[in-house]
Specification:
This protein is α+β, with helices and mostly antiparallel strands. 55% of the residues lie in helices and 16% in strands. The strands form two sheets. A six-stranded antiparallel β-sheet has the order 3-2-1-6-5-4. Strand 1 and strand 2 form a beta hairpin.
Length: 465
């Protein structure tokens, strides 16, 4: 026991050499580690007390008991220093430095169990530099089995072998592994759970009960330090994840606010500018119903065309604002979303029926179909006094057919006869023109049970390859 305590004096030198390489990275913490054992010695640590005890005339049992108690005090001081570290590599390095000093060993390693507890991962090794750079890559992970090393994990108890070559647990070593003549392994245990082990090797004269008890006591503190460092690492990962989530939520909020602004602008254009343009068109139509000079009448008709074109451009802007780029890629989804919004905002019963599969190339008429569907729904809300809206979509290999039907008050026969081409219905005229521009057909008819049904038939252009 006196020999073990005296070895604590030599740890200071070994720790100092290790700390010198790390002062630049973390000078405060490594300075505390470097001086931990030294403080214990200078202020009544094991070395000083051993000298005093050797000069006393107390009984050997009392000397051993007091020496061991003083040794535990020094181990506690070392453990406090290790526990103050938060980075796992620092914990591993400090623990191995003290392990080799406490046991007067030449080799040492720390191994941690995998999640399934079937492999031991060597997270730190000291006293061995392989000549083959790939050695650790090939042998860093070892299967858990009975061996001179593995019995510590399998039986969950310390294991001492002072003649490794003839140890009954020996299973051999991989090529390039250093010769191990003597070995001491102790479990790393947190509560009732073994999380790994510390191994020390090649102590001159072998290992006894003193070294085993000293390293076991130290290993318990190392296990707690490793567990705490793991928790600290997971906490940092969790904080980083929360920060990333906050950033993404911030982006989502920004996108939501932007969408709200776009919707507000679109609504303002529709309710104010759009309606003003519509009223202007009605007044122009009233002028054309009078007897005008032919030249003046032609100028007024040109003005009406300008109003119609401007209203068309305005609808394009409103549509673009209402649907951010990339918001929808599927016609069914987009029209369904429009229909649900109209139903929710106006208290209407709505339904969408689809048949077939959207053909390739439908993207070419995507915006036209959405614009016409949106305008048809707006007409129902503004004029039909309906309670129900039904949209039917039928996809065929080379065309798409859409019907928008309501159960409202219907439409005057004169407007039905005009089939959306009447001057008093700019919305219907615009829808008809859009469909004709892409080679389709546009029809308006009275519903079988009242209301109005708008039918469009649009060919799908071949998809470019």
């Amino acid at each position: 026991m006196l020999r073990v305590a005296a070895r604590l004096l030599r740890v200071t030198t070994q720790v100092g050499e290790s700390c010198a390489a790390n002062r630049v990275k973390s000078p405060t913490k490594w300075r505390r580690i470097e001086h931990s054992v030294e403080r214990a010695v200078r202020h009544g640590g094991p070395g000083a007390r051993i000298a005093s005890t050797a000069r006393s005339h107390r009984s050997p049992n009392v000397e051993i008991e007091e020496t061991f108690r003083e040794q535990l005090d020094s181990l506690h001081s070392i453990s406090v220093e290790i526990a103050s570290l938060h980075e796992l590599p620092q914990v591993y390095k400090a623990a191995l430095t003290y392990c080799l000093g406490l046991t007067d060993s030449q080799l040492g390693f720390i191994g941690l169990l995998s999640q399934k507890r079937d492999y031991l991962n060597l997270v730190a090794v000291s006293g061995f530099e392989p000549t083959d750079p790939s050695f650790f890559d090939r042998y860093r992970v070892m299967p858990v089995r009975r061996s001179v090393f593995g019995v510590t994990i399998v039986d969950e108890r310390p294991h001492v072998s002072n003649d490794v070559d003839h140890d009954p647990e020996r299973v051999g070593t991989p090529p390039g592994h250093p010769e191990v003549r003597t070995f001491l392994g102790v479990p790393l245990q947190v509560g009732e759970t073994v999380i790994g082990m510390i191994g020390a090797g090649n102590r001159s004269g072998g290992y006894g009960r003193d070294e085993q008890r000293c390293l076991s006591t130290f290993a318990n503190q190392v296990a707690i330090a490793i567990d705490n460092a793991r928790l600290y690492e997971r906490q940092r990962e969790m904080i980083a994840g929360l920060e990333d989530l906050q950033r993404r939520l911030g982006l989502a909020d920004a996108e939501r606010l932007l969408a709200q602004d776009r919707a507000r602008i679109a609504s303002g254009l529709h309710e104010h500018v759009g309606q003003a343009m519509f009223s202007l068109g009605l007044k122009i139509n009233a002028l054309l119903e009078r007897e005008l000079d032919p030249e003046l009448a032609e100028s007024v008709r040109g003005l009406r065309r300008m109003v119609a074109d401007t209203l068309d451009d305005l609808r394009q802007v409103i549509f673009a604002l209402s649907r951010p780029p990339g918001a929808y890629t599927d016609v069914t989804e987009a029209i369904g979303s429009l229909l649900r919004d109209v139903g929710r905002d106006n208290g209407l019963d709505v339904d969408l029926v689809t048949r077939g599969v959207p053909p390739a190339g439908i993207d070419a008429v995507h915006d036209v179909l959405l614009t016409v569907a949106r305008e048809a729904l707006n007409n129902v809300v503004r004029h039909a006094q309906a309670r129900t809206i039904l949209i039917s979509i039928r996809y065929e290999p080379e065309r798409v057919l859409i019907a928008v039907q309501d159960d409202g008050v219907g439409m005057p026969s004169t407007d039905l006869d005009a089939n959306g081409d009447g001057a008093t219905h700019f919305g219907l005229s615009d829808m008809r023109r859009r469909i004709l521009d892409v080679g389709g057909t546009f029809d308006i008819e009275s519903g079988e049970e009242g209301g109005v049904t708008i039918r469009i038939d649009v060919p799908i252009p071949p998809k470019e390859t």
